[in-house]
Amino acid sequence: MWRREAFGPPRLLLFGGTRGTGREVAGLARARDWEVVALARASAAFEPLTALGCTVVIGDALEPSHVHGMMRVHGRGAAVVCTLGGGPLGASADFQGVVNIVDGMVATGLRRLVLVSSLGAGDSRAFASERLLAAIGAVLEEKSRAEAHARAADLDLTILRPGGLLSTPATGDGALFEDPRVHGRIARADLAALIERCLDDRTTVGRTLSALDLTTLQAPEGVVHLHSVARAVSGASGPPDAPPWHPGQTPPHLTGPHHG
C-alpha cells in the first residue's frame, strides 16, 4: 500500500497529465497540497500543470530511460497514476508506455499504481459491442496486454476501466464496479475523482474496476457499485492507512456495498 513519507505532503508521479483525465487528476491533487511530478514531452502544452504548481519533467513515456530517470529522482514515497492513451503518442502508449512505467517502478522500488485502462479491455472485451471493437479493437488489445503486464509485476495495483469519456463538468455520480458486464459513460472530471479515491483507499489494491456515471449505467440486474463519488460524506474518517488529507480539509468516507 502507498504510504507517504513521514514529513511533507503525499507525492504523485503522473503520466498523461498534460491533457484530459490526467490534467483533472493534477488539479485535484494540488488542491489537496500533494506534490505532483508529471512527465511531459517538450512539445506538449504543459503550462497548465506548472500553473497549478506541478513539477514538470521533460521526457517521453516511450523512452524507458526517461521514465526510470524520473522515478529515480522524484519517486521516493510516491504513488503513480497512468492515464496514457490516445493523443499524440498514439496506440503505442497504451502498451509500451505502460510497460516502461511498470518496469521503472519495479526497478526503483515504487509500489502504488493506479492504471487507467478502458472498458472493452481484458475480461470486459467479451461484453463489448461489435461497434466498439470495430472502432478501437486494436487499442483495446494493447490495453489488455498492458493490464496483463502490470498484473504480472509485484505492485500495489488498481486498474480502472472507464466507459466512454466525456469532456463535460463533473456530475458527482461517478461510481466503481467490479462486474465487467457494465456499460456507460463518465466525465473525465468524475473519473479523476475516482482515481483520487482509489489512492486513498487500500481496499482497491488488487482490483480491476469499471468506472461509470450512475446516470448512464447499463448493467444486469443486481449489479452493485463499490464506491460512488455521489455518496462521499465529508467529515467522516477515511479508510485505514489512507494518506492524510491536507490540514483544514476533511477526508471523504467512501460508502457503498463491498463485494467479492
Characteristic terms for this protein:
260 residues; alpha/beta; Rossmann fold; eight-stranded mixed β-sheet; two-stranded parallel sheet; 6 helices; 10 strands; globular
Brief characterization of the structure:
With 260 residues, the protein is α/β, with parallel strands linked by helices. It contains 6 helices and 10 strands.
Description:
- This protein is an alpha/beta fold.
- It has one domain (11-231): 3-Layer(aba) Sandwich (Rossmann fold), CATH 3.40.50.720.
- Helix content is 32%, strand content 19%.
- It has 6 helices and 10 strands.
- It has helices at residues 20-31, 47-52, 64-74, 92-108, 130-152, 188-200, and strands at residues 11-15, 35-40, 55-58, 78-82, 112-116, 156-162, 164-166, 174-177, 185-187, 207-213.
- The strands form 2 sheets. An 8-stranded mixed β-sheet has the order 3-2-1-4-5-6-10-8, sandwiched between helices. It has a two-stranded parallel ribbon with strand order 7-9.
- α3 packs across α4 (92-108).
- The longest helix has 23 residues, at 130-152.
- The protein is globular and about 50 Å long.
- The two termini are 19 Å apart.
